[in-house]
Structure formats: structure tokens, C-alpha cells
Write a structure and sequence with these properties.
The chain has 83 residues and is mainly alpha-helical. It has one domain: Non-ribosomal Peptide Synthetase Peptidyl Carrier Protein, Chain A (Orthogonal Bundle). Helix content is 54%, strand content 0%. The protein is built from four helices and no strands. The protein is globular. The protein starts with a helix and ends with a helix.
């Protein structure tokens, strides 16, 4: 399963997005500020879910708004973390 697919699964679960909304998500899909459910508390939940799914630790200084700008930027962050 691709990183993008896994990221969409996590976002869908944490944000409780509908399946049709999840299927429309692509690399250029805006996240933070574009999805009403994606607030600061949701960011923490997404980070926790990413850590659990991938067995990684995401430090505070690794995260800024640019990571959550689009689905593609989130996937790129995960690629760097998992490399």
C-alpha cells in the first residue's frame, strides 16, 4: 500500500471524512485550512496516528504548517522520515 493511500486512510479515520471525500484526495489536495475538521487538535491526532502506523517519532521541531499544506507535502514528509 502506498504512503499516500495510508496517509489518506489516517486522515479519513481521524477527521471522519466520508468515503467519497477520501477518494477525491490527491497529492495537490489542500489540507490545513481547507478541511474544516482539520484543526489544531486534529493535527495532534494525525501526528499520533502517523507515529503509531509507521513506528516513528515525530519531534515538535520537525513539524510546521507546511507539512500539512497538501496531501503531497504530508507524504513527502513521511518519505523523508522513513528514509
Amino acid at each position: 500500500m502506498s504512503l499516500q493511500t495510508q496517509a489518506v486512510e489516517i486522515l479519513t479515520g481521524v477527521l471522519q471524512l466520508s468515503e467519497p471525500a477520501a477518494k477525491k484526495m490527491g497529492a495537490n489536495t489542500p489540507l490545513l485550512g481547507a478541511i474544516p475538521e482539520f484543526d489544531s487538535m486534529a493535527v495532534i491526532s494525525v501526528i499520533t496516528a502517523l507515529e503509531d502506523r509507521f513506528g516513528i517519532v515525530i519531534e515538535d521541531d520537525e513539524i510546521d504548517a507546511s507539512v500539512f499544506e497538501t496531501l503531497g507535502s504530508l507524504v513527502a514528509f513521511l518519505e523523508r522520515k522513513l528514509a
